[in-house]
Every structure is written in structure tokens, then in C-alpha cells.
Amino acid sequence: MRRPPLQTLIALLLTAVWGLGLGIAHLRGDIPFVDNAEATLTNLRNTLGGSFQPPDLVTIVAIDDETSRMAGHYPLPRATLAKMIDAIAALGPKAVALDLLLVDAGDNADDAALEQSLKRTKVVLAAAGIFPESRQRVTEDSKEPLARVPSALQFLEPQQRFADVASYGIVNVQTDKAGTPRFVPLLFRSGERIEPSFSLRVVSTATNEQTTVISDHIKIGDRSIQTDTGYLMPLSFYGPRGTIRTVSASAALNGQLPEAAIRDHIVVIGATVTGGGDVFPTPFDPVLPGIEVIATSITHLIAGDGLVRDRNIRFIDLYFAIGLPLLVVGLLSWQRSTIGLITVLGVMLIWFAINVSAFKHGVWLSAALPIAATMPPALLFGAAQLWFDRRRATRFAEQSELLQRIEAPGLAEHLARDPDFLASPVHQQAAVVFIDINGFTGLSETIGPAAVRELLNGFYNLVEEEVTACGGAITSFMGDGAMILFGLPQPKPSDPADAARCCIRLAERMRGWLSALPETVASRIGFKIGAHSGTIVASRLGGGGRQQITATGDTVNIASRLMEVAASNRAEIAISDELLLSAGRDSAPFSEGSLDGPIETGLRGRAGTLAIWLWRSRP
After folding, report:
1. Residue 92 neighbours by CB distance under 10 Å
2. In 79-192, at which residue ranges do the beta strands (DSSP E only) sit?
3. Closest CA to 176 of 368, 353, 359
4. Which residue has the higher pLDDT, 413 or 364?
């Protein structure tokens, strides 16, 4: 078995180190740049999975616009809240969760009425934590599990008279940078004080089971709740608003509550009134009411149907962060052809299918971490391989005088008359044409240096003849391609038309030249042409006896990129709309072959689009 080259072994070692480093950082908590991408990919997987009906465990009683209208204003008077709780309690719920902050004293009579209602049933009140930042960081070297619990500056607790007759929990959720709730912390701390979350307190109250905190998870009675770092419970949304059964609170005020929706259910009371502000963007709904987020977390805790993302899952993520990039880089080193790329694509698709399937079955494997571990090594290794391949191909090509000293054929006479021509850079209008041979690098590795030299000489002679005939200047031959200018030494009105005609003549000559080559060679190569007009910066580079004329600027870059557009659209030529408009309707592309356009298309490395035309020869 052939031993892998040293550069491949080094690449595999560096790839493993990169993946291991990311994986270890992932074990210790989320990595900001990976976490941002993970949020987007999580939304995608949620969308792919679609919405589904949640277990019939929780009912939302929503303080909506109709309820506000009946009560006369919002926030509701506490006597109205008392009446609402009494109506719900009469139908036998397992527990009532009041997702409203009762931190300020109200009218004494109203507060007394609410206090009496709270005494008569199992009600859990909402408290809130005030945090110095949206996401809490912890001491990295801390070994104490509770040290990783989100730490609040202080808690906003219900009025003491309410807290004396009802339990309460912290209602905060943890969101990503887009504001989407991703986790519900099940525990919170402020100084040395630990408080349970609102959802955890509600479930414990409803089931009459004790909550036990263990080193890596939480138990409610005999049931274990698997949590992420810091006792965070991942959220998986069932669908858009209303997916969890929602009843207007006005039904509680007018005696029309459906008993089946209340009896033996956990009832969550919260605000959905317009302008209430308690809404979150989710994959299924850009304005999901916060009360539905809370109801989702309560359902997860009871049904156990949420996402699982704990330390074991993060270890699996680490294995993928090492294994996937090693496999991809290994495949790229083994087969740098279309077959190799297809194999890599197949591996990535298999990994993605595994990831999506696991997510659909409640296992939250990271999607962003393996991608972050794979893309940089694969791209760098691929770029390095292309560079080595190009170097090998260049060594095979005989360096003739045409390659060693390029003096822009077509400008020699002008240079002889004016030795200071372009001694300083000048801005002027010009048409720029690029032509390139497709597949030349791969071919040059197999046919030998003598055949490569003969092939390039034929190509160079062909290009020089047609460019000279059309009045252009070849500023450089770039291995298997050429850059051609129309506008030197001075721009002419006919430059766009001449450039367009040159494109057509080059395409016709190239087809004839390729057809005359041996089938084993002609079948492996092709050509592409790009052309654009605009302002260029023309100058002379080099010193002593080795100088060349060149052009730079956005016009040159666009013309070069248009070759990629031609190749990707299976066309022979891609011409900018600007050049064709300048050339006129009687120019060669309109009268010969097949011309399609204008087409708005994006160019690599450029924002926005460019109007282009695609030219193909007629069969």
C-alpha cells in the first residue's frame, strides 16, 4: 500500500488538532461564532421536521384583547385575576401557573381578594431575575456543578403577601442573538441563593413530586430530566402560536371555560394582549407569545419530549468534530477528481441526514461544530493541493521566450516610438477580454512536457493571430489563458465592437483547433471567454530588460469573473451588457451564433448583480 505523502500526513494531523480544540471548547460551553451558526441550523432542522401536536397536558388561558376589553384596561385589576383563578380552580386543574409579575402592591381590597384566591388552589407565581448580560458566563475552572447555573444580580419576587400563600419560580428563558428562546434554565442563583425555574416549580407542584438536583441532571420524583451545561433544558417548539391549546381568559370571566380543557390539566395564565411585548421569534412564528414558550417548557418537563443535549451528546459532537474533517481531508487527498468531490459530497449528505434524523428523534447533535471543524481544513488543504498541482503543471510546460518575456504583442511598434509609454500609470477606457483553456492542469499532468509545449504553442499562436487581426493587444499569457486589451495605446470608438468581434473569432478558431486535436486530448479540455468594458489602470511593471504592460481595476476583475459565468452556464462566451451596448446592435455577437440575455447574475467576490449576455455557437 502506498504511503501517504508527508504533506497529507501533516494536513491530517493539523485537521485532528483543530477539530479536537473545537470539540474541547464545545464541551466546556458554547463557542460564540459556532453558537450563532448553530442557531440558524437549528431553525432549519425545526422547519424540516415540521410542526406537530403536543401532548394534551397543558392549557393556556390567555389574557388577550377581548379579556382586556371586558376588564376595562390592562393590566387587569387583581380582583379580576382572583375571579379568573377561582373560575379555573372550580374545574379541577392539577395546578395553575400565573405568568405575571406581582412585584408591586395594588389596591388593598383587590390584593386581598387575590390573596384569598391563591390560598384556595395550587398556584405558582412568576418571579424574574435581573442579569448583567443576556448570557451568563461562568468560571472556566469551576468544578462545582451549581457554579455554572445562570447567576442573577437579584430576583424580582412577588409581593410577600402572595409569596406567603403560593410558591414561585424564576420565569427567565435564555435566547440566542436573534432573540429565539433556546433554553429554559431550570435553576437560577443570586449570590448563595438557588431558586428553581417557573416551569420546574409548576411541574413539581402539579405532580406533588420532590425535585432533586444531581451533578449532571435533575430528577422530579423518579423521572430524570437530562440537561445541558448549567442545568439548561433545550426547547423544541411544537409549531406556531395556538399549537398548544389556548383559551381566552374572557371565558373564565363569563363562566364559559371548557371543563375538558381545564380538569386534570396544568393551566398557564399569561398575557397575549396586543402591545404586551412578551413575544419571541421562533422557527414557526416570528411573534410567538412568551406564555406559549413557558407552556412548551412545562410540557417538555412532563412528557419528556424535548430535545436532549447533555454532556454525553457533547462528547458525540466532539467525535464528529474530529472524525468528519479527517474523513473529508483524507478523501480529498486520495482522489482529487470529480469522483473525489462526489464522494466528499456524499459523506457530507450522509452526515447531514444523520444529524437531521437525530434532531427529529429528540437528540440535539451540533450541526455547526462539525462544519466549523471541517470547512477550514478542507478549504486550506484543497487550496494547497491546487497550488501544488499548478506548480507541477508549470514545471511540465516549457518556458519559451513568449512566457519568459511578455511585451504585449501589438504594442511593440508604439513602444519603439515612445520608450516612456506607460512609465506612469494612466486611467482610460478599454475593453478587456479573457480566454482560458478548461481542464488544462489535469491534462498537463498526463501528456508530458513536450505535448504540453506543443499544445500551448498552438493556443498562443491562435490567440495572437486573432487578436492582431481585430486590433487588440495581448498584455499577458497566463499559462493556459490570455488577457487581451482593446484601448491601447489610445482608446478608440470601435474598441467595444472590435472586442466583441474578437470574442466570436476566438470562439470559432478554438472550436476548429480543438476538433483537430486527438480525441483523447480534445475530450478533456474546452475553453471559456469573458469580456467587459470600462475604466482600467494601465501601467508597466518590472525593471531593466524584463518589463510587461498590464492593466488592473474593477473592469479587469469583472471580465475575468465572466469566464466563470460562461463555464457555469455551459456557454462559450459571457459578455457584459455594458460592452454589448457600446458595441451596438450590428456587432458580431448579434449576427452570429446564439445570444441570450440580458441576464442578471452574481459574480464571485462582488455584491449585487451584473447584466450579462451568453453566446453559444449554433450547431
Report:
1. 12
2. 95-101, 123-130, 154-156, 167-170, 174-175, 181-185, 187-190
3. 368
4. 364
pTM over 0.85: no
Could you tell me what percent of the chain has a pLDDT over 90?
50
pLDDT tier for residue 187 given thresholds of 50, 70 and 90: very high
End-to-end CA distance of the chain: 48
Residue 543: per-residue pLDDT: 61
Are the C-beta atoms of residues 138 and 147 closer than 8 Å to each other?
yes
CA 153 distance to own-chain centroid: 34
For residue 368, what are the β-bridge partners?
A: none
Provide the pLDDT for residue 337. Answer: 64
Could you give the CA distance from residue 472 to residue 434 in angstroms, rounded to a whole number? 12
pLDDT at residue 78 in the model: 92
Tell whether the model's pLDDT for residue 11 goes beyond 90.
no
35, 37, 38, 40 alpha-carbon torsion, rounded to 10°? 130
CA-to-CA distance for 396 and 550, rounded, in angstroms? Answer: 26
Q: Which burial class, exposed, middle or buried, applies to 452 when counting CB atoms under 10 A from its CB (0-12, 13-18, 19+)?
A: buried
SS3 601: strand
Query: What is the Cα–Cα distance from 559 to 532, expressed in whole angstroms?
Result: 5
Instruction: Provide the 3-class DSSP secondary structure of residue 74.
Output: coil
Cis? peptide before 489, omega within 30° of 0 = yes
Distances, alpha carbon 92 to alpha carbons 67, 111, 122, 265, in Å: 22, 23, 10, 8
Per-residue b or e along 584-608, where b marks 16 or more CB atoms closer than 10 Å to that residue's CB? eeebbbeebbebebbeebebeeeee
Pairwise CA distance, residues 607 & 175, whole Å: 31
Going 48 to 49 to 52 to 55, the CA torsion angle's sign is: negative
Distance CA 190, CA 227 (A): 20
Whether the Cβ atoms of residue 241 and residue 285 lie closer than 8 Å to each other: yes
* Full DSSP string of 403-432: HH----TT-HHHHHH-TTTTSS-EEEEEEE
Interior CA angle at 9 toward 4 and 11, to 5°?
130
Closest CA to 549 of 458, 450, 397, 428: 428
SS3 state of residue 201: helix
Q: What average pLDDT does the chain have?
A: 86
Q: Rounded to an integer, what distance in angstroms lies between the CA atom of residue 250 and that of residue 19?
A: 56
> How far apart are the C-alpha atoms of 168 and 199, rounded to whole Å?
10
Report in angstroms the alpha-carbon separations of 442 from 124, 323, 380, 396, 426.
71, 30, 20, 12, 38
Report CA Rg, the chain: 35
Q: Can you give the length of the chain in residues?
A: 619
Who contacts 457 (Cβ-Cβ below 8 Å, separation ≥6)?
Answer: 400
CA distance 388 to 384: 6
Distance separating alpha carbons of residues 235 and 339, to the nearest angstrom: 41
Instruction: Report strand pairing: 279-280 vs 288-289.
Output: antiparallel
Does 477 score more than 90 pLDDT? Answer: no
CA distances 575 to 533, 582, 610, Å, are 9, 12, 10
| CA 107/CA 75 separation, integer angstroms | 13
Quote the CA–CA distance of 577 and 599 in Å, as a whole number.
9
Q: What distance in Å separates the CA atoms of residue 11 and residue 14, rounded to the nearest whole number? A: 5
Provide the CA 50 distance to its chain's centre, in angstroms: 20
